[in-house]
Amino acid sequence: MEKVTVMIVEDQEIIRKSLGIVLNLQPDLEVVAMAANGEEAVAFAARFVPSVILMDIQMPVMDGVRATELIKKAQPDAKVIMLTTFQDAEVVSDALQAGAEGYILKAIDPIDLASAIRLVSRGETMISREVAKALFARSLAAPAAPKESEYGLTEREMQVLTCISHGLPNRGIAEKLFLSEGTVKNYISSIYSKLNVPNRASALKKASEEKLL
């Protein structure tokens, strides 16, 4: 079984080592490097070429957003998950702009963290429900019926996009809107096409920037 290689970037040694121990217990994951700041992360990413990078935001020498930008320029295929205690919408947007595929809180359960790493390694995106809510704090509490947007999104597509902004997975969207999961996937593909984005994180970022919600 081919393992997913992981690099942990965290300035607090106890957290860094704890994460390393927890993740190395997973048979399909292997921690190949650990860095204490963004500058080390850039150097280690080039040296060890990890599949997935867990990146802290606030660090000395170089912060996680800047490190992500540099790593992504040098290694476009590297997958980065921002791992932080902060729920600041501006930081979330900066991290997505830098190219991060995921954004989750440090308080996440270790099993869920391992699942997030696997998900991102397969090319998907991961934004925790708490972070999605922080990013779209002004969104409506339930899907509304907004008029067709300038991007040509239909009323139903806008409802699906609103559900995504609330952190709902496909199954949750299907249950909320009384649709099948297959239909939800079709709507999401259409949203990606109309917004000219490749994934959930990019769709959320564009929706936020364009004030679609």
TrEMBL record:
Keywords: DNA-binding, Phosphoprotein, Transcription, Transcription regulation
GO molecular function, one term: DNA binding
Short name of any one Pfam family annotated for the protein: GerE
Residue ranges of the TM segments: none
Gene3D superfamilies: 3.40.50.2300
InterPro entries tied to this protein: CheY-like_superfamily, NreC/VraR/RcsB-like_REC, Sig_transdc_resp-reg_receiver, Tscrpt_reg_LuxR_C, WalR-like
Keyword Amino-acid biosynthesis: no
Domain called Response regulatory: residue spans: 5-121
One of the protein's GO biological processes: regulation of DNA-templated transcription
Ranges of residues in domain HTH luxR-type: 146-211
Residue numbers carrying 4-aspartylphosphate: 56
Keyword Membrane among record annotations: no
Official protein name in the record: Response regulator transcription factor
